[in-house]
Structure formats: C-alpha cells, structure tokens
Fold ATP-binding cassette domain-containing protein.
Amino acid sequence: MTVAQATLSSQFEALPQSATASAVVRPHVTIRGLSKKFGNTVIYDNFDLDLPRGKLISVFGPNGCGKSTLINMIAGLIPVDAGQILFDGMLLDEIKFGYVFQNYREALFPWMRAFDNIAYPLKMMKVSKRERQERVERLVAHLGIKLDLNLYPYQMSGGQQQLVSIMRALVVDPEILFLDEPFSALDYEMTLFMREQLQKLFMESGTTMVLVSHDLEEAVYLADRVLLLSRHPARVADFTVVDCARPRDDATLSDPEFVRLKAHCLEIFQREVRRS
Ligand SMILES: Nc1ncnc2c1ncn2[C@@H]1O[C@H](COP(=O)(O)OP(=O)(O)OP(=O)(O)O)[C@@H](O)[C@H]1O
C-alpha cells in the first residue's frame, strides 16, 4: 500500500459516525496563528487566513513556498507546529472532506475495480453494500460521466483514473475538497478535459474546493479566489477575486477581465519572486 493509499485509509477509518449524518454545514475555514518548520526552515510563521464557503480557491506562488504544506495541514495530513484550523468552528474530524492526490497511480487501489475504488470511503464508513451501489451510481449519473466502472486502474487512461480519484473524494458529499495539482501528471488534452470536468463538478456540487496549481492560467480560470503566497515564511501576497461568469470556456481566456486578472496575479507573483 502506498503512502497516498494508507493516508486515504486512515482518513476514512478516522471518520466518526457523525460524519455519515446527512446534515451538511458549509465550511468556512478559519486559520489562526499557523506555524510550521521543516528543520530550521520556517514555512509558516503565525499565519492567518479565512477561506470562504462554497468557493473554488486556487493556491499559487513561487516554487517551494508552501502551497502543498498549507493544504496538507488544513487536511490534517501533516501536523502543525502551532495554531488552529477550524471549519465553521469545528475540528477536521467533525466534518467530511475529500483529498485528490497529484499522483493518481499511487492513490488508487490497483486491485480494485473503478466502482470499488469510488465506493471505498463509504465502505470505511460502514455504509451498506446496497447503499454504496446506489450512491456511486447516483454520483456517476449526476455527473454524466461515461466510464465502465468494472475496469481496473491499469485498464483506464490517466484522466479516467484521476476522474475516479475525484469521484472517490466526492462520494461522501464532502464539505471541502482539497486537490494538490490534480492534473499535473496528465497530458495537455486530458488536462483541458479535466479542467472542464472539475468546473462542472464544482458548479453542480457547490463544494468548497482548495486547489494547488502550478499553472497561473489554470489557477485563475478555475478559481473564485486566487490565493497568492509569498516565499516562505509564507504570507498572503494577495487573495484576488475572480468574478468572471461561469461556466467559463475558451472565450473566457480572451475576456478582458480575465486577461487583466491574470496579469495582476502574474505581477504579484513576479514581485514575490524578485523579493526573495
Ligand atoms: N517533509 C518535508 N521535510 C522537509 N522539508 C519539506 C518537507 N515537505 C516540504 N518541505 C519543504 O518545505 C517547503 C515547502 O514545500 P511545499 O511542497 O509545501 O511547497 P510548494 O509550494 O507546494 O512547492 P512546489 O511549488 O515545488 O510544488 C519546500 O522548501 C520543501 O522543500
């Protein structure tokens, strides 16, 4: 079992019974006094941030500034040295969340068919076999995804495997979904397709999403807000609002407002790179 698979197992095994309750409270993430060091390197020092509910937030910044570390701390995958992270006042283990790893090859269980990979978190939550079947079928139908759920990961394309990973994260109806460069291992054609799929999923689910991206155009295109981080110790260089209409499409890329926002983000990014 890989680190990603083990993390996924423990993440869902740790879900309390209350996590299966149908009442969904939209999270509003409050981060206060967050500090994190790796050795002598200070990545976060007394860092504060609020993440709005029901928005897609892209996290962008210089290489190694701490983008993945931030979402991994919020998602409880790595410990914080100090500080508090609350979801509408609740702790992480009181809410449902999903995590999509960059490396779908390691994240999916190779010995399970697509269906069983998607249904895995429900099994960990002790949802009955019949209900698991119904919920997976409902999710696939709702998303309008055409995929043979009997296939094993090795029989699927990279994009299909990542789609299965995303569906696995969504099947629990998470209040918040974390995605760490989910498309970076895909080819360009599949990346464009998956961006559209993610936008559709976001618009249909309204789930708060936090996406780490290395691609500024992608970060702005998908986001309601772009969180621009400085080099570590990371601080918020800007938290740009992207209010271009959805659904966004190829025409959005040449929309003057989109072009302006992208240039604005690039300017801040370059300023932060020069500063270091
Ligand atoms: N487990 C670890 N042990 C030691 N140092 C680490 C560890 N994880 C991350 N780092 C360091 O912490 C810093 C932030 O890492 P992180 O992966 O969060 O950055 P990032 O902004 O996501 O990077 P990238 O742009 O390269 O994806 C980097 O300098 C990295 O080398």
Notes: Residues 13-27 have pLDDT under 50 and may be disordered. The longest helix spans residues 256-275. The chain has one domain: 3-17+26-275.
